[in-house]
Amino acid sequence: MKVTLDNPASAPQPLSPYYSQVARVEQADGSALLFVSGQIAEGATLAEQSRGVFETLDALLRAHGGSLADVINIRTYLTDISKLDEYGAVRREFLTGTPPTSMTFEVPRLFRPEAQIEVEVVAALPAG
Length: 128
Prior knowledge:
Blueprint: E1 2-6, E2 22-26, E3 32-39, H1 46-62, E4 71-78, H2 84-94, E5 101-106, E6 117-125
Parallel strand pairs: 4-5
Antiparallel strand pairs: 1-2, 2-3, 3-6, 4-6
């Protein structure tokens, strides 16, 4: 098993130098698991921030040969769970196949005061 920590140049860069955005875990059969750090995005509304988050997640996955279709687990942190439907509508625009396993949490705040959402994912890439 080989683990690579990465901040792909082709994707938006992390907001802090103290973490890596992607951990790629190579399996013996040539497949890989991608663990993507929580992402936030700019925007006035939860929908705008959600779109930005999914665009960043997609860029990070594509930099490693994957896509949002490869996501097997998603964790979402919302500062207002009453807006879950607004987030869900955007999520369905980006995750169009069989839904991944999922957990959604309401949190009092995120590390940036303006952030309403943070999303982290795990993706499974097939061999080859």
